[in-house]
Amino acid sequence: MNKIIFTGIIIISQLSSSLIYSQTLIKGKVVDKMTREPLELAVVTNARTLKNVVTDKDGNFVLRNASAEDSLTISFIGYRSQKIIIDPSKKALMILLEKGQMDLKEVVITSHSNNLTTSRILSSIDLNMQPVKSAQDLLRLVPGLFIAQHQGGGKAEQIFLRGFDADHGTDVNISVDGMPVNMVSHAHGQGYADLHFLIPETVQGYDFGKGPYYTTKGDLCTAGYVAYDTKNTLDKNMVKLEGGQFTTGRVVAMINLLKDNAREKEQSAYIAGDALYSNGGPFLLPEHFKRYNLFGKFNTRISTHSKLMLSFTTLYSKWRASGEIPDRAVSEGYIPSRWGALDSSQGGYTTRTNANIKLTTSLGKNLTWENQAYYSHYYFSLITNFTFYYYFPAAGDEFRQHEIRDLGGYNTKIAKKSVIGNATLTCLIGAGFRYDHISPSELDHTMNGNFLSYLQFGRTKELNTNAYFDETIETGKWLFNVGARVDYFHFYYLNMAPVTDTFASKVFAGTGPNAQKATISPKLNVQYTVNPQIQLYFKSGKGFHSNDARVVIANQGYQILPAAYGADLGINWKPAPRLFINTAIWYLYLQEEFTFGQDLIDQPGGPVQPSGRTSRKGIDFSLRYQFNDWLFANVNIDLARPRFIDSAAGHDYLALAPTFTSTAGLDFRTKSGWNGGISYRYLHNRAANSTYTLTALGYFVTDLAVNYTRPKYEIGLSVQNLFNVAWNESQFEYVSQLKYETAPVDEVSYTPGVPFFAKLKLAVFF
To answer: Do 161 and 95 have their domain in common?
Structure first.
């Protein structure tokens, strides 16, 4: 009897061991075959169970409930999918994917947290199919985001998104490799985001999110955020020459500094630079826009568990500008055409040098720790004239905005992934600080570029510390994400203007130099994946945008951190293998609206009264479709209804806020090397003031690009404004007075948009 029992125990033990062995965890890593760089968000699917997982930042994945000899399919947008059979003798799989033709059949809707923002799908498709020509084009890749340039090519672009005229970044949080681009309490406007230091050819990918729903994003993330990642290594060296109309030329070089075998040691280093010159278009006052960039990046594994990234970049930019002109300046003959200038001294000069270091450490048991420190030194000087002879009839209204800034910060975060039963829990805890020291922070009255008097002159210090907690629970088809962050701000502004400066004396009279405020921002997001074709999601959260330190002090702390409350209800849908659709309805409420010139002391008559509460609601729609192996279509349609809440009907319009925008295009990429596309961008007419008695005119502009790409070279032609339509790029309401006018006029001033502009390029790869 005992022998029978003993034999039975052995048999059961062997069966159990076999079952445990056959139903096991499969671990692996997915990397680019050429560069050996890890591929984040590659989808690994078990053909038997149809369960899938996505890779993390290091390309790693863990697939549960897999059996020996199961078949796995690994797919990643822009790469050839690969099928493998599980080999139980291997403890970890190393999967090398090769770049290939874009195929939307490879797009997989998953229930995992990395897919929460949807943006990774859209950004991967668009970056693969729409190679960008400039840092500005990178911003235009975000569905619904429009930009405008109005003071020469070297100035940060004006940004429009989700019913916001976000000025130069007041409501859009922008970063590169985790380092903030936005400048708080900037001489020209809150959140000023000059992205011109980013060389577009160095961009590996980007992520974006609309609304205030993301725990890791703090200040200025109300309309949304855009985060760029640069390449860690180059698959090939490159030298590119570009030249076109209006005396435009650009040269770009990107060179690997280490030999190919360094990739086996997980080391890489490269340097990139570009130089640009342009007269800026048919302006009668040549722009003489010069920009130089230098970028370097080094990655290495310093131990079995730790990786180090170092990068630096430096920017130099100088230009002249024709500025905005009112319609009457042309119609009444003050200037010969819309390409003329009323003040020839306008223009700017800026530099920015950045250093960035990041250490990523694996602590074991699915626990990672990331530490980042960054530093920027920044110089900015801009001469503008919006109102001409309105404030100062004798000397004119020309003014200079100037600042010198040192910016430093540190971020740390710990991520832990755990499995409890059928649920996967991902916990993220982080903290950090950012410190800005601006001296001087200056607004001067000038004439012909020469200093006349101070309008505002002081020193600014601003500290933002933060901490956050984020928990994501994945169970079955459901995903729940809940989080909260706390932000503390300390503002310091010391008015150093002489007492004879009546403007500064009036604004800062009786104020102390310090103010502080803290805010808590909770977030709740829910996602339900019906099947691999349909996914529903709900996002909600509170965000904020900080006010300019000068406004905070002048207002004695009123509305330091006005809150934004928002919600999205959306769907991701693949009704056909090569068709992807995302659409959402959304609502956003702001405790305080920031408007150009009114809240931000950025022109001579800019007092600091609050603007009031606002609401926005709208619909976003994005479609990506592949007709065949080489032809693709993209469509984005964005509707918004922005309004002041406390104003009477008919007086509640938000000036310049977009209400209807659309972009679409046809892109092609053939196996023979031909690629490119034709696209349009449409911005509807919108109110230029709160009563809509003035209109900011919309436009419909078409662009074209055709390239022939081979392994060793690429030649191409790009055309902006293919049909040479007359359009206005930026538009503002100003009460202005021209030199010989006897009374001021309330009118829309504009900067004309670029006419037909053709450019050729030649790139050599080696």
So the answer is: no
Average predicted confidence (pLDDT) for the chain: 90
Q: How far apart are CA 475 and CA 137, in angstroms?
A: 39
What range does the domain containing 599 cover?
A: 119-765
* Cα gap 207→687, rounded to integer Å: 31
Q: Which residue has the tokens 């002041």?
A: 644
Q: Do residues 262 and 298 touch, judged by C-beta distance below 8 A?
A: no
Are the beta carbons of 493 and 552 closer than 8 angstroms? yes
Region label for 711, one of left (φ > 0), alpha (ψ between -120 and 50) or beta (otherwise):
alpha
> Do residues 54 and 136 both lie within one domain?
no
Least confident segment among 104-108, 139-143, 535-539, 545-549: 104-108
* 108 part of a folded domain: no
Answer yes or no: do 609 and 676 share one domain: yes
**Domain tally, the chain:** 2
For residue 173 the two structure tokens come to: 């949080």
**Which DSSP symbol is given to 355?**
E
- What is the mean predicted confidence (pLDDT) over 604-626? 82
- The C-alpha atoms of residue 12 and residue 7 are separated, in whole angstroms, by 9
Is there a contact between 35 and 59 (Cβ–Cβ < 8 Å)? Answer: no
Q: Which two tokens stand for residue 95?
A: 């999967």
CA geometry: angle 27, 32, 35, nearest 5 deg = 125
List, in sequence order, every residue forming a beta bridge with 60; answer none if it has no partner: 29
Query: Which range in 34-43, 152-161, 651-660 is most confidently predicted, on average pLDDT?
Result: 651-660
pTM: 0.93
Give 103-118 pLDDT, tens digit per residue: 898 888 888 765 555 6
Q: Is 345 within 8 Å of 448 (Cβ atoms)?
A: yes
Phi, psi dihedrals of residue 510, rounded to the nearest 5°: 75, 15
The verdict on whether omega for the bond into residue 440 sits within 30 degrees of 0, i.e. cis, is: yes
Residue 263 dihedral angles phi and psi, to the nearest 5°: -65, -30
Residues 123, 96, single domain; the answer is: no
List of residues 6+ apart from 84 with CB closer than 8 A: 71, 72, 74, 93, 95
Q: Specify whether the backbone of 227 is left (phi greater than 0), alpha (psi in -120 to 50) or beta.
A: beta
pLDDT of residue 459: 97
The span from the CA of 229 to the CA of 207, in Å, is: 8
Give kind and range of the element (H or E) at residue 125: helix 119-129
Cα(516)–Cα(521) distance, rounded to whole angstroms?
17
* Same-domain status, 174 and 317: yes
| Alpha-carbon dihedral 693, 165, 591, 599, rounded to 10 degrees | -80
What is the DSSP annotation of 35-91? T--B-TT-EEEETTT--EEE--TTSEEEEEEE-TT-EEEEE-TTB--EEEE--TT-S
Name the pLDDT band for 754 (thresholds 50, 70, 90). Answer: very high
How far the first Cα of the chain sits from its last, in Å, is: 77
Residue identified by tokens 């840092």 is 135
Query: How big is the chain by its Cα radius of gyration, in Å?
Result: 27
- Across 123-234, the runs of DSSP E, i.e. the strands, are 146-148, 158-161, 164-165, 172-176, 179-180, 182-183, 192-193, 203-210, 224-230
Strands laid side by side in the 224-230 sheet: 179-180, 172-176, 224-230, 203-210
Alpha carbons 570 and 572: distance in angstroms, whole number: 7
Whether 506 shows a pLDDT value over 50: the answer reads yes
Same domain, 212 and 269: yes
Separation CA 561–CA 594 (nearest Å): 11
Q: Where are the beta strands (DSSP E) in 385-422?
A: 399-420
Instruction: Extract the tokens encoding 700.
Output: 């419909």
Beta strands 24-32 and 43-46: pairing type?
unpaired
CB distance 391 to 445 below 8 Å: no
How many CA atoms within 13 Å lie on the side-chain side of 264?
A: 3
The count of other CB atoms within 10 Å of the CB of residue 517 is 17
SS3 readout for 287-315: CCEEEEEEEEEEEEECCCCEEEEEEEEEE
